[in-house]
């Protein structure tokens, strides 16, 4: 048997920090990781550089008591997607393949378009890139000042996010990959030397985050934000990895919202992206275009990933000649295919500046040439074509009249009863291949009660829900206003306790002879969610529970005086408690334990948010008890802790860290377990 691969490690972690947490709680995240305050990324995510590498499990363990840490991921390592070349083909066979000459004839007058090459560095001194580079005109070169106040000093030609300098090219690093990508997009054409790029109107913005050993998702995220902030219309991403990064996908979504098309290489593992994800190519964004690699005969390159759903188009990627530092060279990979699409996108955007990213994507997809080898390997079944994309855009990319794809709600379950004033509603994310999902609306009884952004899949109503049966659903809204609603579910909101049960027998203060006592009571009523159970307390401890149709319980207390009462519980967790009655066990019957089972757990039925209720444990013998706390709905573990208890009654204070995690209002289940199968379960309702 092959040995298991060791778990992934990283000396950089990404943490989503609760935006509503206090300054002290937010600072505790960095302290728990043994580092400083970290650096802000996107959507409340921060990156923390650690003194040594950790696994994801170790990072989660360190953050277990940091209340402000909502989610944690390792900072994914990304690699340039290049396959070494083995053979040589005719010079630039790829340009006729995408019908570039015809496209150039139609592309006259295209406005300049900035294309961010987020990659290794770019040799900005290459003669075939002269006049094709973006320039930050708000910055004065070489004065050592941040003239435009954007946080980057002397970022005239772009930025190096790996080393955090303005040096976008390093001969030591090589930077061949990014230079090759830049040449495919925008190398000078018609200058009597070198090669021709696809887009004369493209201006390359070099944003370096990769070195020979790769780069971090956190640096890629900041590079994307820089590209958006500085006017890029197209981003080329000829890199990726198997590690999922939610904040990276969030950054791509934000770029799309700002009108930027993100072109991603599909990957070089000869695998199916529908089955094995490649990131960021698989990020679910309407403004992302994933590109497979094709050969000179329009076949799928042997190394290229595919995906009937996740990969959009093919483009030439085998044995592509382009610029490299000091000259020209051949490279292969989906890294080489992506810049063909980025170049076509730059031409289309320059000819039709008003097109949204999804419309440029649609023009490239529908304007490509049908390639049989790409049927089932890409969603379009086409290889990108410059002339075809220009024609499709010129004919007018139709308005988006298609609603988002069908999607469903997750929780609360159909017909669930709750006592919460602000229950949390959750749904599965929707997708929209055209203009993209822009918002979700939470509807209760046909009225919108909340709206959240596209990256959010839960919401609560803005005001307390009225008691009674409520009907709820979620509506997905795309960028142009098309709507898609989920099916409706019902939720029973009940915050009214049942009527008070009345103890019936034995009579109050009555003597009882014998080894066993049968306690009975009258039925409680509940007009909302209905009585779900009864719980009987003897001397303040739970002696047993019954279903709603059973109103008697047999127990075996010791000789002497005892108190008892009944708790009626409805389906939403509301409780009402009867008056206290007493009885006295007489005679010489053998002493019996009050407990029907060897372990009993009691605690108050309700507690205010943030308070530390006392748990009372009755055990037949000393034991080490493990307490598990979880949310009742949706089911989610909150905390686990252990305590030793003595024979008889032991009071256990709920740990402060657990109480903090139980601050959200709702119903919690506390489970106590001890050796020899001893177990008991109680419910606790936390209210604001």
What would your notes on this structure say?
- The chain has 688 residues and is of the alpha+beta class.
- It has 5 domains: 9-75, Alpha-Beta Plaits (2-Layer Sandwich); 79-142 and 153-354, Peptidase S8/S53 domain (Rossmann fold); 413-492, Immunoglobulins (Immunoglobulin-like, Sandwich); 494-596, Immunoglobulin-like; 598-688, Immunoglobulin-like (Sandwich).
- It contains 11 helices and 44 strands.
- Strand 25 and strand 26 (483-485) form a beta hairpin.
- The radius of gyration is 33 Å and the shape is elongated.
- The two termini are 54 Å apart.
Write the layout of secondary structure elements.
Layout (H helix, E strand, L loop, with lengths): L8 E9 L5 H10 L6 E2 L4 E11 H7 L6 E6 L2 E4 L13 H4 L2 H7 L6 E7 L39 E2 L15 H11 L15 E7 L6 E2 H13 L4 E4 L1 E2 L5 H12 L3 E5 L22 E7 L18 E4 L3 E5 L2 E5 L2 H18 L5 H11 L1 E2 L11 E2 L2 H9 L14 E3 L4 E3 L6 E3 L9 E8 L2 E6 L5 E2 L8 E11 L4 E3 L3 E5 L9 E3 L4 E4 L3 E5 L9 E8 L2 E6 L5 E4 L4 E11 L4 E3 L3 E6 L12 E4 L3 E3 L5 E6 L3 E9 L4 E10 L2 E6 L2 H6 L4 E9 L3 E10 L1
Parallel strand pairs: 6-8, 6-10, 7-8, 10-12, 12-13, 13-14, 20-27, 29-36, 38-44
Antiparallel strand pairs: 1-3, 1-4, 2-3, 5-9, 5-11, 15-16, 17-18, 19-21, 21-24, 22-23, 22-25, 25-26, 25-27, 28-30, 30-33, 31-32, 31-34, 34-35, 34-36, 37-39, 39-42, 40-41, 40-43, 43-44
Helix pairs in contact: 4-10, 5-8, 6-7, 8-9, 8-10, 9-10
